[in-house]
Amino acid sequence: MSGIYERLQDETEDNGRGLVPRPTDLPPLNLFEREANNVRNHTVNWQSYVQGQMISQEEFMFIRDYDSCASERLDDLIQANGAQCAKVMIRLIGRIAKEMTVRKILTLIDDMLKEKPERVNIFVEHAKKSKTSPWVPFLNLLNREDKFAVNQASRIVTKLACYGKERMGPSDLRFYFGWMRTQFTTAGNEYVQTVAECLQQLLRLNEYRESFMENEGMSVLMLVLSGKVSFQIQYQLIFCIWMVSFNPMLCSQITKYNIIPVLADILSESVKEKVSRIILAVFRNLIEKPEEKEVKQENALTMIQCKVLKHLEVLEGQKIEDEDITDDIEMLQETLHNSMHDLSSFDEYSSEVKSGRLEWSPVHKSEKFWRENAMRLNEKNYELLKMLIQLLESPDPLVLCVSAHDIGEYVRHYPRGKNVVEQLGGKHLVMQYMGHEDPNVRYEALLAVQKLMVHNWEYLGKQLPVQKDG
Fold first, then answer.
1. How many degrees, rounded to 5, is the angle at CA 366 between CA 363 and CA 369?
2. CA separation for the pair 420, 368 (Å, rounded)
3. Any idea where the ATPase V1 complex subunit H C-terminal domain is (predicted)?
4. Residues 343, 296: contact at Cβ < 8 Å?
């Protein structure tokens, strides 16, 4: 294995600053970066704020010197006036309302921290004197109307929360992750890439991954990835999933968010090597990181069900030179092939149901399968049966057909099946499809309903007047 995985894992468990994107991973300048360049070139008349008594003479002299300081002398100025630097800049963003000036101050702060992350200490020391946390003044800016200023403040919050020794507490994290959720789900948000960059930075630290999961962060990422987004956003959000998957406990939890089917779809359609690379890295973690053997096996079976092996063969045929990709392809192929050898018919069925992608695979129509395995749908508090009932709300006619059929077979072969399905709300859902526009759905729904309602199920298929298409 190449060194990237060991290096990335070490860095994500450390301070997270060492992860450097490859040149091929760097996107063109986005809206935020173009606006930031305009702000840097903007000249503020600081003297006017003194004349208007909005800032003191001392504050004016410092911000004037800072704003006009040559880059090679900036470090000396900050080291000599660190306490004043933090004090003046935070006071200015709290006093000045003019949009362009607030943009300028925030950009000066962000650039300062980006150039030398250890400069967060001047804001940490200032916060100690006021008995607060260094990111609080900037969290308060996230409700402003100016979207550039809001996202610049977000970048500063992230740097302060990651580069210093103090970690953001549960309350502030809940607020910040809530703000991010809103940004990701706001239609037409042109700053999503910037928000994703902040989340990438936060999730490099293990301390923030659990809070991210607790605040329903993963469900939001999957909501975005399930829609139409650019390959750059795909890469960034899947990178975030990858960061979470380094935590063994969380790695065992995240597949419940339908991650494998969604990423398998993206992998099958992706034309960008960096997107394929990060998806394979996630898949590798989903097999290697969980501590429970059962979870590893289940993830492997879901990948098989989602035709990941086929996608790996396509990638292998592209003669990719990236060692990380070829290494992951080899590892995943070996693991998935081994899993297939140990695959029982019930394992196959279980992984298909959990993937949500039902089709007429042989097990569904096998009398022997249902006779031997119907009661296994009761395991883990009816886990698979509940999933089948949930799939009755799918918009896909094929999924409706197969799920209705399987519920009927469950009732056929499990004496208490009728009562269980009715208690779980399945009977009502099946019945509503007896008038479905698709004749195949109507057929399977009618057959399932009659199995739910009468005892002589052996002859129902012959008695039904509805003819199944195809």
1. 75
2. 22
3. 343-457
4. no
Q: What is the separation of C-alpha 297 from the centre of its chain, rounded to a whole number of angstroms?
A: 22
DSSP 42: P
pLDDT tens digit sequence for 243-267: 999 999 999 999 889 899 999 999 9
CA distances from 251 to 83, 259, 312, 434 (A): 42, 11, 22, 41
Rounded Cα distance, 104 and 108, in Å = 6
Q: What is the pLDDT of residues 398-429, one digit of tens each?
A: 999 999 999 999 999 998 999 999 999 999 99
State how far the Cα of 357 lies from the Cα of 301, in Å rounded to an integer: 13
**Residue 3: band (very low, low, confident or very high) from pLDDT cuts 50, 70, 90:** very low
Collapsing DSSP to helix, strand or coil, 17 comes out as coil
Tokens of 452: 């739910």
Instruction: Dump the DSSP string for 337-388.
Output: HHHHHT--HHHHHHHHHHHT-----GGGG-HHHHHHHGGGGGHHHHHHHHHH
Q: Which residues of 288-321 are buried (b: 16+ CB within 10 A; e: fewer)?
A: ebbeeeebbbbbbbbbbbbbbeebbeebeeeeee
Distance CA 219, CA 208 (A): 16
Alpha carbon 302 to its chain centroid, in Å, reads 18
Q: How far apart are CA 58 and CA 50, in angstroms?
A: 10
Residue 187 DSSP SS3: coil
Q: 3-state SS of 259-299?
A: HHHHHHHHHHHCCCHHHHHHHHHHHHHHHHCCCCHHHHHHH
**The total number of residues written for the chain in this structure:** 470
Cα–chain center distance at 386? 25
With pLDDT > 70 as the criterion, what percentage of the chain qualifies? Answer: 90
Nearest residue to 238 via CA among 292, 179, 279: 279
pTM of the model: 0.78
